[in-house]
Amino acid sequence: MQSLEALARDARALANGEVVLNAAESEVARQMQICNACRYCEGFCAVFPAMTRRLEFGKADVHFLANLCHNCGACLHACQYAPPHEFAVNVPQSMARVRGQTYSDYAWPPALGVLYQRNGLVLCMALALGLALFLALAAMLKTSIWGAAPGGDFYAIFPHNLMVSLFAPIFIFAVVALGMGVRRFLKEVTPATSGAPVGGAAAGEATRDALTLKYLDGGHGEGCHESDEAYTLARRRMHHFTFYGFALCFAATALATVYHYLFGWVAPYDLPSIPKLLGAAGGVSLMIGTAGLWQLNRKRHPSHGAAEQKPMDLGFIALLFLIASTGMLLWWARGTAAMALMLCVHLGAVMALFLTMPYGKFAHGIFRSAALVRNAVEKRQPNTLGLGSD
């Protein structure tokens, strides 16, 4: 009877042009109302101060807060209303469910976001191996897949212009799809976060918070929770290894592009060239970070997140580790009979990453950064609630 009443209420709301929250969003709104009355966790992270600036939680507010949440678990362990209490407040888990939903809600095109969420790990690995097989077959049309290329030259296997023609459209697609997704997200949450424009101080604060992962310190600097009640900074550190390792690898590729087109210096490069130093440091850092995140993800207490997101999370982690490890192995295999095959596997993994980038765990960094920007803007505006006034 209650479900029929809820359906009838939603039908009336839709008929009146109102925005209806789904079950996951309604659960976040319910828990935020309880948390807003308690406010014990106000100093833990950005979510709770942002929560106190609201009396009601519409769809845009819920989406904003869900992406502002860093899923550290500190509030769950501190909460007097957590399960088995009848209020059943579990902010990290409820936020994780909505956050995962937003990746597909704002995805462009939407169908790809749904596909990746349901089969993240399998899709990533199948796509990487499928692309590697395609590249291997393409290479076999020109040369043997098992045999040393002259001078360890990658372009003897895949000419430079061919690699550019393969990767440029995929990279542009990833950038456009991510841009479209975050644009739609900001279009919804900006009016709900004061609507004020982004100033320099707000942008600087949000950038600092994102790059330092400020809100993975538990609010007291000792870290968050993983598998038990103990505080740990492990996830923050592994995220740093992963993010800055990826950034170093990207910087190496960007600098190699400058070398190629501006100076005519053709890859591959040897030590102590700057692209090789950046790539080696980035590859090692990325392997450490992804291996650590895989272990933490597998051991984490189930109450800290949404189980349905694990395939998406593990797929992204596995793909990054595959890219880093095959990149390092490619360096080792250069000039050997295994170089061509290793090059195909590495390029296939990189292509798979760019194709899936807008729909999974990479997107969470972009959406979370956007939420941090809007939070930094909103907190600088006058409080419009007027509590206690006439």
From TrEMBL:
Gene3D superfamilies: Transmembrane di-heme cytochromes, Chain C. It comes from the Bacteria. The keyword Membrane applies. InterPro entries: Citrate_utilization_prot_B, NarG-like_sf. The keyword Transmembrane helix applies. Keywords: Membrane, Transmembrane, Transmembrane helix. The chain crosses the membrane at residues 120-141, 161-182, 241-262, 274-294, 314-333, 339-359. This is Citrate/tricarballylate utilization protein.
